[in-house]
Specification:
Blueprint lengths: L1 H18 L11 E9 L4 E9 L6 E9 L4 E9 L5 E5 H4 L2 E2 L4 E8 L3 E9 L4 E7 L1 E2 L1
Antiparallel strand pairs: 1-7, 1-10, 2-5, 2-8, 3-4, 3-7, 4-6, 8-9
């Protein structure tokens, strides 16, 4: 019996060392990325594209907006259900609880690995983009 338990533990350690924790159910957010500037007013807007990782099928994502003082003003939660699935929209369409401040920052959290691109544009047609890969915390 002890040899069987040791063998099972060795297989679990090998799988975990090779693939990470994908063989175990995870709860909570383990990955994060931050966009240090976001804007939303009469002439400026911020958009976000969140791309699911290649390995995981289901990934729960939370997008949080903070004002310039660092206070949480709003958030939105959605699920990416397929590998390489993407959610694209303005912050106003993604943040469903609270509000998007005129100036602030964005924190994106995920249960699994993901990537995101922030796009800031204005009514004159100018825009800029920043792409980031989530890091495990």
């Amino acid at each position: 019996m002890n040899k069987l338990l040791v063998s099972i533990a060795a297989v679990i350690l090998l799988i975990t060392a090779t693939y990470g924790n994908i063989c175990f159910a995870q709860t909570g957010y383990f990955y994060e990325l931050d966009f240090v500037y976001a804007t939303s007013d009469a002439t400026w807007w911020t958009g976000l594209a969140v791309l699911n990782g290649e390995i995981f099928m289901t990934n729960n994502i939370r997008v949080e907006c903070y004002d310039a003082a660092g206070t949480l003003t709003g958030f939105g939660v959605f699920t990416l259900t397929n590998r390489k699935a993407m959610r694209v929209g303005t912050l106003e369409s993604i943040v469903t609880n609270g509000y998007v401040p005129e100036r602030g920052s964005i924190v994106v959290l995920g249960e699994q690995y993901f990537e995101a691109t922030e796009v800031i544009g204005n009514s004159s047609g100018g825009f800029g983009m920043v792409q980031q890969k989530a890091e495990r915390f």
